[in-house]
Design a protein that fits this description.
The complex is a heterodimer of chains A (about 350) and B (about 500). With about 350 residues, chain A is an all-alpha fold. Chain A has a domain of about 200 residues. Helix content of chain A is about 70%, strand content about 0%. Chain A is built from 15 helices and two strands. Chain B starts with a strand and ends in a 5-residue tail after the last helix. Chain B is an alpha/beta fold and about 500 residues long.
């Protein structure tokens, strides 16, 4: 529909749609100038997170020369891998305004199941790996279904799954580690080096980062993820099948969890049924440090990667400085407070 | 002027990048209702926030009883006898009326225990003064909006307010509730309270206000006694141009084919046997008092609330609508009266808000979303619906009410909806933008869209709707042709279900 404009002479019209040329308000000369600062403002949290990461790296390099050695930097990347992959998947969940507490134990369960598939059932490696990832997706699917159809709040639903997965992992494995020593090539999933100097686990993290970024920014699922987190009710009234997309989001997160379980098992060359609790909180911390809002509707994959790297770097740096593990945890907690507070400061400034 | 209560002189205020007020003056006498009007963004709220100490002014003087005062915070304003009744009520729903009124000022016993008896007694006294009966022990969450407003007024009076600011007090009130509010306002006037009254409803200003001041774009335009103010002139001053004369739709839709037929629509809670049909190119108005079930009809039709019984035919074919997704697929879109809660993704930009309902049609090969196309389509709508925005990447929370409404409208147009259900399309939208929405709805109907328009403003219904469905207590009590309808007839149908003990068609 087109109508002749007799726009009222208010001040806003200066920058708004006028009827002269098709895209006149975009072509106006001041537009380009405006674009840059607003881009900076929009990506401020991301830039800030990246700058923080740099500062942290430089700080530890100065304090301890060993920190910046190649083997240590690779070590940081390796130790970031599992939390990073978990964080990538759960970024989607958190952008919808949800939360996922079953990441850690769910990951353990998928690792144990992968052990069952490969060691006990003797499935071929690719099939067993795929089944492992699918079992992660299934856990996510169950989370999504209880949340979307039974209306159980995500916190409670995934808390229940966390406990169920923890118990099942112990039951299925008989509370004993499953070793993959007889599965040829399994450990190569995390430790091999397709690219020289870069462990495959880290490569997987980077590849998944790219995939997650594409899914979040370029696909329907990504758009609906933001829409649901922004205003679930409005999305529903607009004809979005919110239930279905929520299940898709949790299933996707579950699949990432499956990969994380696989990478962890490959790195340890075993499935440790008692390991896993606490990973979910580190992953959520990475997401939040990366600028994704727990209120939903806002977040980025790159931010999550940087957040995970910050967590990994701080942990590693403190260990190199011989800070006790107990104090490492305390400091990570403080980092989270600082990260979220700077975000609040920024938004406070933007809104006045 | 001997009884000048308040005078604001040359008030200016700037925010980064915006000059919100420049050199605005206003005075208020004791026992006067002084109406403050202007479009959204004209500076009314900013001026009131300066008066009540929320913002600090950049320049200007505030005088109370002729003496300059320095209002440096809400507490100071309160101490000076200035109280404000907010557009969005600021009561705590889980506390009782008395607890709400005296919060922070409770009389305590043994240091920690609240003396509830004292609270309730004092609240009852306030209500006595107002000539209202409300039990102070009722939880505020159990009150209707009008009653909550009375509680707000009582709270203001409990501070011995001499200057009362009312921001759109009737926005959520029914006709009868408005009567009660006006009675209270007249009472307050008699006792010498000065009231600054902000409203978009110009008709009611004629009834309740003594003088009208117009602001536009942060500037003072004019003040006039209400007796001399002609509504059209006030509107012209507000928007800075003449508004086309109020008309009624000329075209009859009698000859047009029926698009949607609703038979015996019944829901568990409210609706009983609602039947009507909508023609192509028609605006079908829904009138009735609050709670008559108009919004519920729209929600049931769009699959938001479940239908218990009833049949829906779309172009002669029976359809079942179980979810908003079903309705959207059939080309039916609902625009809620509460745009912020049920319409917009406030923290997302215009493009996602426009494309939300039609996203699958914007995906290319590999299932990737074609952003460039979405951007172009959004820009087209921004232009054709005349949305005022700096760019399509602007977040919708930064837009004014009228522009937000247009964005939601664009969403359904992008979805190619033939049937639009608009619920109070101009609620909270200023006069100039209202006109634009009216023109927009009319031109959409002329292009063949069918529009179901729910409105509590009868002049709006009479002006736009070809036919008018009147509801009362969940039933349709009358369906009128525009030519046969006037405000009195509609009100008669809207109130008659009780009198006739049932359906009257």
């Amino acid at each position: 529909m087109r109508r002749v404009s007799d726009a009222p002479a208010t001040k806003e019209t200066a920058t708004s749609a006028s009827s002269t040329s098709p895209r006149s308000y975009l072509a106006a000369p001041h537009r380009w100038l405006e674009l840059t600062p607003s881009l900076v403002r929009r990506q401020f949290q991301l830039l800030l997170a990246f700058a923080s990461l740099l500062v942290i790296v430089i700080f530890f390099s100065v304090v301890n020369p060993h920190f910046s050695s190649r083997s240590n930097l690779t070590g940081i990347l390796e130790s970031t891998t599992v939390v990073g992959i978990l964080a990538l998947g759960t970024t989607f969940v958190i952008i919808t305004g949800g939360i996922e507490l079953s990441l850690g134990t769910g990951m353990t369960l998928t690792a144990v199941l992968t052990g069952i598939f490969l060691v006990h059932l003797g499935l071929p490696l690719p099939v067993g790996v795929l089944c492992g990832i699918l079992s992660g997706a299934l856990i996510g699917f169950i989370n999504g279904t209880t949340i979307a159809f039974l209306g159980i709040p995500p916190f409670i639903a995934t808390l229940a799954t966390m406990l169920i997965a923890e118990g099942l992992a112990l039951v299925i494995s008989g509370a004993a580690p499953i070793y993959f020593s007889e599965v040829a090539g399994f450990t190569g999933i995390a430790r091999g080096t397709l690219i020289p100097w870069l462990p495959n686990g880290v490569l997987i993290l980077f590849v998944l980062t790219v995939i997650a970024a594409i899914v979040l920014n370029k696909t329907l699922l990504g758009r609906y993820t933001f829409a649901i987190g922004s205003n679930e009710e409005a999305a529903k009234i607009s004809g979005v099948n919110v239930r279905r997309w929520k299940i898709a989001v949790y299933t996707l997160s579950g699949a990432f969890m499956g990969v994380a379980g696989l990478v962890l098992a490959a790195r340890l060359n075993s499935a440790q049924p008692a390991l896993g609790v606490g990973y979910e909180l580190q992953a959520i911390a990475a997401v939040v440090i990366g600028g994704t809002s727990l209120q939903g509707g806002k977040g980025s994959i790159l931010g999550t990667l940087i957040g995970a790297l910050i967590v990994g770097t701080v942990t590693n740096g403190l260990r190199i400085m011989s800070v006790e593990p107990e104090w490492q945890t305390v400091i990570i907690g403080i980092v989270i407070l600082l990260a979220v507070y700077t975000d609040i400061l920024r938004r406070g400034r933007a809104s006045t | 002027m001997t009884d000048q209560l308040l005078r604001l002189e040359g008030i200016s205020k700037s925010f980064p990048g915006v000059r919100a007020l420049s050199n605005v003056s206003l005075d208020l006498h004791a026992g006067e209702v002084h109406a403050l009007v202007g479009e959204n963004g004209a500076g009314k709220s900013t001026l009131m926030k300066i008066l009540t100490g929320v913002y600090a002014k950049d320049a200007g003087t505030i005088l109370i009883d002729g003496k300059p005062v320095d209002i440096d915070g809400p507490q100071t304003a309160q101490a000076l006898g200035i109280s404000v009744i907010h557009q969005e009520l600021s009561l705590m729903p889980d506390l009782t009326i008395a607890e709400n009124i005296f919060i922070g000022r409770e009389k305590r016993r043994w240091w920690a225990f609240v003396d509830n008896k004292d609270l309730n007694r004092r609240a009852a006294q306030l209500f006595d003064q107002l000539g209202i009966y409300l039990d102070p022990r009722t939880k505020v969450g159990d009150l209707v909006v009008a009653q909550q407003q009375v509680v707000e007024i009582a709270k203001a009076l409990s501070f011995d307010a001499r200057i009362l600011v009312m921001d759109e007090p009737t926005a959520a009130l029914t006709e009868q509730e408005t009567r009660v509010l006006f009675r209270i306002i007249r009472d307050l006037k008699r006792r010498g309270t000065g009231i600054i009254y902000i409203s978009h409803r110009l008709e009611e200003l004629r009834e309740i206000s003594d003088r009208i001041t117009v602001l536009r774009d942060g500037e003072y335009i004019a003040t006039m006694p209400t007796a001399d103010a002609d509504v059209r002139r006030v509107i012209a001053l507000m928007v800075g141009r003449e508004i086309t004369h109020q008309t009624r739709p000329a075209r009859s839709t009698r000859q047009r084919p029926t698009v949607l037929e609703v038979r015996g629509l019944t829901t568990k809670d409210l609706l009983r046997d609602v039947s009507f049909d909508v023609r192509e190119g028609e605006i079908l108005g829904f009138a009735g008092l609050m709670g008559a079930g108009r919004t519920e009809v729209a929600r049931a039709l769009c699959g938001i609330d479940p239908i218990e019984r009833g049949e829906i035919y779309l172009r002669g074919r029976r359809v079942r609508i179980k979810s908003p997704a079903d309705a959207a697929r059939l080309g039916m879109g609902y625009l809620s009266e509460d745009r912020k809660r049920f319409g917009l993704l406030l923290d997302q930009d215009i493009t996602l808000n426009v494309a939300l309902s039609s996203l699958p049609s914007f995906t290319g090969p590999l299932g990737l979303v074609r952003d460039k196309r979405i951007r172009e389509v959004s820009e087209d709508y921004v232009r054709s619906l005349r949305v005022k925005a700096t760019s399509v990447r602007q977040q919708t929370q930064a837009l004014s009410g009228g522009n937000q409404q247009k964005v939601v409208l664009a969403r359904w147009l992008a979805k190619d909806c033939d049937i639009l259900l608009v619920d109070e399309p101009t609620r909270g939208i200023d006069v100039g933008a209202k006109e634009e929405i009216y023109e927009l709805l009319t031109s959409l109907a002329e292009q063949g869209k069918s529009i179901i328009m729910i409105s509590s403003e009868l002049p709006e219904v009479l002006r736009l709707a070809h036919r008018i469905v009147v509801m009362c207590e969940g039933r349709v009590t009358g369906i009128l042709d525009n030519a046969d309808a006037d405000q009195e007839t509609i009100m008669a149908y809207a109130t008659q279900a009780g009198a006739h003990g049932g359906i009257a068609v």
